Amino acid sequence: MPASRHTHHYVATGERTYQLPVAYEYRVHTPLITAAGTTLTGAASFTIQLDPRNVGAFLRRTFDDCIGNQGAHIYLDNSFAGTWYKAGASNGVGVDGHHRCWRDEDFPLPASLTVGKSSVNVRIVFLPATDPQNGDWTAFRCSMYSFVLPALPSP
Fold first, then answer.
1. Residue 27 has what pLDDT?
2. How many CB atoms are closer than 10 A to CB 143?
3. Whole-angstrom Cα distance, residue 102 to residue 139?
4. First and final CA of the chain: distance in angstroms?
5. Residue 93 CA: distances (Å) to CA of 5, 14, 39, 63, 139
6. Contact between residue 23 and residue 32 where contact means Cβ atoms under 8 Å apart
7. Is 51 exposed, middle or buried (0-12, 13-18, 19+ CB in 10 A)?
8. pLDDT tens digit string along 3-16?
9. Over the Cα atoms of the chain, what is R_g?
10. Of 14, 20, 61, 72, which sits with the fewest C-beta atoms within 10 Å of its C-beta?
11. What's the whole-model pTM score?
12. Helix, strand, or coil here: 73?
């Protein structure tokens, strides 16, 4: 994790790291997976690459879904991209007795903020809420995926 943080110029405020040994919530039989991640009550920013031929992109976050109602404002290169909100929380334990907290979720980005760019600065700003009460923003992995149209065959 430290090498990735350095490579992506990761900076955060209001962050706490923790280990989570759980399984994915939406699979019947999955092994426990232990990973280090963070809870955030401030802001985090990092630079991430994407294909410059993109016609759009999305972020994918692996997070702790046992913490409910997570929300954050997302910015790309200081432009507001939207509010990422995950309502509710995992029901906790599967039939195998494993806690089911891992979840992956995608956040589509406005094409106007990604087209033609080979990298963007992503800023995630925790969005506190009281109705319903939300938990900290959690992240164990964040990836960027580019939509690239296939090349047309030559006539």
1. 62
2. 12
3. 10
4. 48
5. 32, 29, 21, 16, 20
6. yes
7. middle
8. 787 788 899 999 99
9. 17
10. 14
11. 0.89
12. strand
Placement of tokens 């030559």 in the chain: 154
- Show the CA angle centred on residue 18, arms to residues 136 and 89, nearest 5°: 40
List the chain domain ranges.
Answer: 2-146
Evaluate whether the domain defined by 2-146 bears CATH number 2.60.40.290. no
Neighbouring C-alpha atoms within 13 Å toward the C-beta of 155: 0
State the Cα–Cα distance between residues 75 and 65, nearest whole angstrom. Answer: 22
- C-beta separation of 146 from 63 below 8 A: no
What is the spatial distance between Cα 117 and Cα 136, in angstroms, rounded to a whole number? 31
Full DSSP string of 89-146: ---EE-TTS-EEEEEEEEEEE-GGGTTT-SEEEEEEEE---BTTBP--EEESEEEEEE
